[in-house]
Amino acid sequence: MRLFWTLILIFLYNGYSSEGVNSTLSARPKVVNVGCMLSFNTAVGKVTKVAVEAAVEDINSNPSVLGGTKLNVISLDSNSSGFLGIVEAIRFMETDIMAIIGPQSSVIAHVVSNIANELQVPLLSFAATDPTLSSLQYPFFVRTSPSDMFQMAAIAEIIEHYEWREVIAIYIDDDFGRNGIAALADQLAKRRCSISYKAAMKPEATLDDARDVLVQVALRESRIMVVHTYPSKGLDIFSMARYLGMIDNGYVWIATHWLSTILDSDGPLSPDKKENLDGAITLRIHTPDSELKKKFVSRWSNLTGKAGVTGGMSTCALYAYDTVWLLARAINEFFNQGGNISFSKDPRLTEQNSGSLNLDSMSIFDGGKLLLDDIYKVNMTGVTGPYGFTSDRNLFRPAFEVINVVGTGFRKVGYWCNYSGLSIVPPETLYSKPPNRSSSNQQLHSIIWPGQTTEKPRGWVFPNNGRQLKIAVPNRASFREFVGKVPGTTDSFRGYCIEVFTTAINLLPYAVPYKLLAFGDGHNNPEDTELVRLITAGVYDAAIGDIAITTNRTKMVDFTQPYIESGLVVVAPVKQQNSNAWAFLRPFTPRMWIITGVFFLVVGTVIWILEHRLNDDFRGPPSKQIVTVLWFSFSTLFNAHRENTVSTLGRIVLLIWLFVVLIINSSYTASLTSILTVQKLSSPITGIESLVNTKDPIGYQLGSFARNYLIEELGIHESRLVPLNLPEDYAKALKDGPSHGGVAAIVDERAYMELFLSTRCQFSILGQEFTKNGWGFAFPRDSPLAVDMSTAILKLSENGELQRIHDKWLSGIACTSQNTKLEVDRLQLKSFSGLFFICGLACFLALLIYFVMITCQYCHYYPESESSGGSSRSGRLQTFLSFADEKEESVRSRSKRRQLDATSVRSVDQDASVNGSRIDRSEIYSNRVVSFRESA
Question: Which UniProt keywords apply (predicted)?
Fold first, then answer.
């Protein structure tokens, strides 16, 4: 019948426009009519009716609110029935009312909103919290309390705060329940959480129905229950949960604000009901303390006493009171803008044969749109605090209190606001600060959970439905020390990986029934990527074994903490490097030998240049000087040079060179000692880089991810890759080599290769690991068991049990030549480049200073050669080179003789002028020069 009337109403007001004026009242009438739809038989309906009547009385007693106009509220009882609500709404529309306050139910609000849209009458509800009522479909619906969208955001942040991943939603399967849970799912998805199971109940559910639903809930993994229902049904759910033993350790019960409404409105609950709610969390709409609120609260007992109503005051009563004031202020503004209360007939209704419903008596409110705009423009301070709307038609700054039901009462453990999330201080103190949603800033006081415990519940357990986990185990053909099937059995396995798994799972504080299933035929190693894919397909519930954690696999499943490190390495044959007659040349590379020899010659030449004009040890015939340079250069290696350096520049260069020689000599000695005393192995392959640059075939383990890595990441052509299955295949392929159908090297994981090399000394790992990964157990995405198993593996690592298991299975007989080392790298030129650079720079600067000094000296002793323009450039160069080759002592002696000769000439000239002698000055000068040379 309800569906029938709904279809009739939708048909009546689709697609037509109203016309004609039925009545027009004065612009500021004496009385304005407002409807109010409540369920008088409910506790919320009773207290909100008292609040509405109190608001009307306060408004009418204050002429300044409506300018002398009286507010008349016509109350009708919907009896919590959707059908009766529709009928009452139609009856409202037969009277000329400006707006409707209510209804309490979101289900009724959906239907009545359609009527309000058609007749353009604003519908103000303080209790219909369904988020979808704010959609564009219902433009005349005005929600005057916070939407469930914000309540669900608060619950989602609580779940994220306690690091839970999945919840179970228990709800009434109607518009109110479905849409609220849909909002919760959206908020959880933003935080990478989810609803694992939706337990829907029909609106008329009985205790038996609740029992059947909760039995199914108890079989699920999650222990986080979110109950979104009506007050009467909610208490039944908690009562049945208590009966089934679900209000106990490990469970978390979060109720939406219906529970706080009961706690506030119904007064003290019976001990039995309190016991059912012990440890539950609920939300209450936060209303900041103010003088208006205190005055209203102080009047509440008198108001309920006059009305004959028992019960406390809930936030619904506060919002009902403010809703009436909001409407009154909007009506006053409506009249101030010249609005008139006028109604028009809807021709579609008059054309219909309405029968006893009198549909043709309903009218369209002509000023409905103006009044709606005035409602959204109101900004006031009410008993609930600052009151106004945002651009999306929601109340701004929604906030909730987090309530913990404990014993015979309840306590406030924190707040949630849309501004900064969870906090332990009132939200109004945070609005003056920048918003901070960091995880460290999200706080709540300690909560006493079901079972009277303060320890945070894990949030999930293994389901109690008796189903065993189907865990896949690779049925390997090789390296069965890691994982292998017990001979003669079908589902028994042993090995390092199996013992790690069983030891870790025994640390879990709950039982996990499981069954191991073999994956593979046992003759060829199975492909682990395909095994991981089967987990996503639901074939297996998990996989354990030697499964490497790679990027592609982590996109399909969740892995535990790695229990062993194992990156890819290169294994190739090696041969012993014996000493020979030319072993003394091996410490240095050829380039190092060449550069070192060149520097010996360069330094010797520089020292010769700097010492040649001063030191007799560096003078003599050309052949002697060449021998001197060579001897001096190489004798510095042993600090056995006989020649002394006398110049300052020469001593500086020699000091730096001797330091370089000391470093080179020490390094050479150490390297040569290692070569001659330590047994070494050598191989033409030095690592993955040298292997990639060749065209030789490369072996890999069948089923390993190494194949795809070599092709996709390193660009190695597929034709070079050779699949190998058994360790014997490894050894044979490496011994045969590329020339006999084998491989040059094998690329595999270090864990396998260390076991392979433990008894095969002729092969060795070359270079470093070129991937960094490990082995882990694979579980479906978002599986809480993966998190708990990771914690258990970490405990095994911390207490040393993991190492004990490793030693038990993998520490076998080691290779007898395990102490043999691969040939160390030769000393490279780059290791000494800094020393050579410093020495070269010192030589260059010394030569530059020396050249500047000798040039200045040359210019001082031979000034006539610079001023003589007729001399050739080659002549000047010869003169300069002769000067540079000349000993400095001879140059200084000749300079002194020239000074004496010049002094003698000046004295002769003076004598000739005094005595009047006419002797030719040139003759006298010639005679003096000849006599000077003879005396010399």
Answer: Receptor
Cα torsion through 400, 379, 338, 96, rounded to 10 = 20
Crossing angle of helices 833-861 and 590-611, rounded to 10° = 20
Select the highest-mean-pLDDT range: 11-20, 30-39, 610-619.
Answer: 30-39
Other Cβ atoms closer than 10 A to 513: 10
Confidence of residue 21 (pLDDT cuts 50, 70, 90): very low
For residues 544 and 783, the answer to whether their CB atoms sit within 8 Å is no
Give the model's pLDDT for residue 46. 87
pLDDT tens-digit readout, 218-269? 988 899 999 999 988 999 999 999 999 999 998 999 999 999 988 887 667 7
CB 247 within 8 A of CB 278: yes
β-strands 542-543, 469-474 pairing: parallel
| Contact indicator for 312, 264 with CB cutoff of 8 Å | yes
702 close to 525: Cβ distance less than 8 angstroms: yes
Question: How far is 543 from 528, CA to CA, in rounded Å?
Answer: 9
Pair of tokens at residue 577: 């490097």
Own/partner long-range contacts of 181-188 (Cβ < 8 Å, ≥24 apart): 181/226, 181/228, 183/131, 183/148, 183/149, 183/152, 184/152, 184/155, 184/156, 184/226, 184/228, 186/152, 187/149, 187/152, 187/153, 187/155, 187/156, 188/156, 188/159
Q: For residue range 403-417, what is the model confidence (pLDDT) as tens digits?
A: 999 977 889 999 999
Sheet with 680-682, strands from edge to edge, namely 575-577, 680-682, 821-822
The burial of 461, by beta-carbon neighbours within 10 Å (0-12 exposed, 13-18 middle, 19 or more buried), is given as: buried
Please, are residues 744 and 685 in contact by the beta-carbon 8 Å criterion? yes
**Cα of 396 vs its chain's centroid, Å:** 31
C-alpha–C-alpha distance, residues 826 and 228, integer Å: 75
d(CA 65, CA 72): 14
Q: pLDDT band for position 8 (50/70/90)?
A: very low
DSSP annotation of 814: P
pLDDT at site 237: 94
Residue partners of 325: CB distance under 8 A and separation at least 6: 55, 58, 59, 380, 382
Phi-psi region at 512: left, alpha or beta (left = phi > 0; alpha = psi -120 to 50): beta
CB 233 within 8 A of CB 206: no
Residue type, 616: D
Q: What is the 3-state secondary structure (H, E, C) of 80-148?
A: CCHHHHHHHHHHHHCCCCCEEECCCCHHHHHHHHHHHHHHCCCEEECCCCCHHHHCCCCCCEEECCCCH
Percent of the chain with pLDDT over 70: 80
**Which residue, among 129, 150, 144, has the nearest Cα to 421 in the 3D structure?**
150
User: What distance in Å separates the CA atoms of residue 583 and residue 680, rounded to the nearest whole number?
Assistant: 13
Q: Which two tokens stand for residue 688?
A: 């993955």
The whole-angstrom separation of Cα 533 and Cα 356 is 66
For residues 76-107, b (16+ Cβ closer than 10 Å) or e, as one string?
A: bbbebbbbbbbebbbbbbeebbbbbbbbbbbb
Cβ-based neighbours of 214, under 8 Å, separated by 6 or more? 170, 199, 237, 240, 241, 244, 246
Q: What is the pLDDT of residue 555?
A: 92
DSSP string, 524-549: SPPPHHHHHHHHHTTS-SEE-SS-B-
Q: What span, in angstroms and rounded, lies between the C-alpha atoms of 312 and 309?
A: 9
Q: Which residue carries 């939406």 as its tokens? A: 256
Q: What is the pTM of this model?
A: 0.67
User: How many other C-beta atoms can be found within 10 angstroms of the C-beta atom of residue 417?
Assistant: 21
- Which residue from 137, 105, 229 is spatially nearest to 178, judged by alpha carbons? 229
Query: Positive or negative CA dihedral for 274, 280, 286, 290?
Result: positive
CA distance 318 to 454: 33
Pairing mode, if any, of strands 224-228 and 166-172?
Answer: parallel
Q: Which of 80-84, 443-447, 652-656, 690-694 holds the top average pLDDT?
A: 443-447
Helix, strand, coil percentages for the chain (3-state, nearest 5): 50, 15, 35
